[in-house]
Amino acid sequence: MSMGMGVDSAALLLRWLLDPRSRDFDLSDLTVLTAMTGDEYTATRMLMEKYLLPVMAQHAVRYVMLARAGQSETAGYEVLSDSHSTSRMIMHGTRWRLSDEQTAAGVVPQQVRHRRFCSYRAKGQVLDWWIADALGGAAYRHVVGFAAEEVRRSSKDTSYTSAARNPWYPLIEWGWDRQSCLAYLQDAFGVTWSRSCCGYCPFQAGPELDLLCQRWRNEPDRAEQALRLEYTAVAINPRSLLFGKKRSARQVAILAGLRDLVEHVDADLAAQPWAIYDVRRAYPARRLDKTKPSGLENRDSYAKGQGARSLEPVCVGTYDSTRATVLAMGGQPEGEHQIVRAWTHRAGPPYPSREAFLVAAPAGVPTKVGPAFPAVWAQAEDTPVAQFRDPWTSHLPLALAA
Ligand code: SF4
């Protein structure tokens, strides 16, 4: 069973423990797995330790906690704990946290082609690796706690089924939705179980915005982490507000009454080394029919296709010196974060088109050029990349005076 530690999987597991008629297997056949992102709220740890772990230990349920062991595609995993009497949660690995990955790339968690890439990297891949090692290809039932209203997610999950994996969604069979799960846990433990997620998860500011504000007030270190991630991500991509197009982590923190924290993060970031980044994106026109060749006649020039990015730090300096340099190159402070950017290209429509700017932002994000970038960029305007690069950045010193 994949145990996300949230309302749904906690209710499912608890019912199995308390009501043997709800299951068709012996608990000795059950292995409960959690892959840690390293950035969950402390409240989740406390709920697990105080309420669920004692019942699991009482029934000698095997509980395995895992974490990704590094950044690479083949990094593998660490086993944080593997026990039939777990009394303590280990909420992060020693070698990798999801926030390390986001910080290094200068991004906030995002969906790539309708897939939560962060979740795949921190959880899905890790669980797959462990299961492959532990079961060696033997057939197994994989229990996932999708609630009754998540039939679409379960259908998508079913499409990942392999010959050995037989997915099972008991909550959907029982007709238990989120409310039923919450009520069941409330009844059993006398507490409101909270959603389990990373403190900066972008999917927590919808109908549960009040709860998010409360959680950030209770655990301001999580809000701080979100503010830091968002700042650099927005500098590199102005569309990267943490909670979608209209709501930033900054706005939510202020709404939560954490204005002092926002100012503290701004001041702290301003005191760190800064860099000027050369950021470029290129967008093809979207393909109309994926089954047909990708020629111009099969493209909608008013719809954006899959973009490609190039990011390069071109010099380092201080907050003041990098911003002054970009301002002197025609830049302006933009948006609520007052990020200083100097634009040379704005993306279409029509497409294909280019987007390019220089921006001052906290240092530390390394050069990264997507594999598709050179071709998509060149296609956008028939201009070789080098012709664009030189006039912009060749005269900048590698380090600016303070
Ligand atoms: S909780 Fe949110 S941010 Fe964390 S892995 Fe899942 S989807 Fe990504």
Automatic annotation (TrEMBL):
It comes from the Bacteria. This is 3'-phosphoadenosine 5'-phosphosulfate sulfotransferase (PAPS reductase)/FAD synthetase. It comes from Actinoplanes derwentensis.
